Each structure stands twice: as C-alpha cells, then as structure tokens.
Amino acid sequence: MVGLRQDSLKQLINLYKFERTLSGAKTLARLADTTLPVLPSNMLVTYIPTISSHVRRRGYDHMRLLSKELAKLRSLPEKQLLNRVGKSVQHGTDRKARLTQQKGTFVVRDEVPDSPILLLDDIYTTGATITEAVKTLRTQTAQPIIVLIIARQPFETY
C-alpha cells in the first residue's frame, strides 16, 4: 500500500480519476514502485478493471494506465487478466453490501500465464473487490498473487 487516501494522495487520486489528469498515472506508478520489493522478472502486472460506465464517462480506464506505467517502470510484462461483468457501484455502501455485490463480478479474460501476478487496485475500503478478484484468479492459477493497493480509505470516512 502506498498510503491512506487523504491529503496529497487523495488529491492526486481524485485529479487522476475524476479530472482527467492523465499524468497522475506516472506519478502514482512511481509512488507504487517505491513501495515494492524486488520482484521476479517474470511477474505479470495486471489490474482491477474499472466499471465500463466509468470508463465511458472518463474516457479511459485509470487502472489500465497505471498498470502499464508500473510495468514499464519495472520492465515487467503487463496484461489484462480480468473482465468486470458486474456493474454495481460501491460508493456509499457498507461492507456486507459490498461483499454481496462483488460476488461473480469478475471473469478471467484470457489464459492466465504460469507466472506470479502483481494485482493492482486503487482504493481499499472493505477489501470486497480485491478479495473477489483474487478468488477469480485463484480458479486459474496456483502461482503467487501479490496485491498492491494505492490507498486505503480511512475507516472513519465510510
């Protein structure tokens, strides 16, 4: 995890996601890079895909751009492994609702390579999204899956 979703990190994430400040992908990738240890050279970088309505509204999948930037920094392969089939929006819902909403949200897009995986997500609130994504990937691989979260939502704000 890079840090809590507050102060400058919150501003950076919000500018990147909601104000089309695309340079935020490079900045966030550099911040993420500083938190990671040395990784195996065959580790595949992937990400939690954004809900399609948000991609249409923004004009880009912010996690896809971030994944590509981090992979480039680390000279690692990058590939989208998951498709999001669920369309639920989690903002404003509690943990129980989020866990229920996320069941079956992801499907494996392509064959999962026989290599360790670095799975990126931007915000960790309850863990429902990342838990479901890892469960989905686990159906296709026994390789290690390392999760990197950019920011954790402070508990008092949800």
TL;DR?
This protein has a single domain (3-157), classed as 3-Layer(aba) Sandwich (Rossmann fold). It is 40% helix and 18% strand. It contains six helices and six strands.
Task: Please provide a written account of the structure.
By secondary structure, the protein is an alpha/beta fold. The protein has one domain (3-157): Rossmann fold. Helices cover 40% and strands 18% of the residues. The protein contains six helices and six strands; from the N terminus they run E-H-H-E-H-H-E-H-E-E-H-E. It has helices spanning 7-18, 24-35, 52-58, 62-74, 95-102, 128-138; strands at residues 3-4, 44-47, 82-84, 106-108, 117-124, 145-152. The strands form two sheets. A four-stranded parallel beta sheet has the order 1-6-5-2, with helices on both faces. Helix 2 (24-35) crosses helix 4. It is globular and about 40 Å long. The model has no long low-confidence stretch (mean pLDDT 90).
Low-pLDDT regions: none
> What distance separates the N and C termini?
19 Å
Mean pLDDT: 90
CATH class: Alpha Beta
Fold topology:
Elements: E1 3-4, H1 7-18, H2 24-35, E2 44-47, H3 52-58, H4 62-74, E3 82-84, H5 95-102, E4 106-108, E5 117-124, H6 128-138, E6 145-152
Parallel strand pairs: 1-6, 2-5, 5-6
Antiparallel strand pairs: 3-4
Helix pairs in contact: 2-4
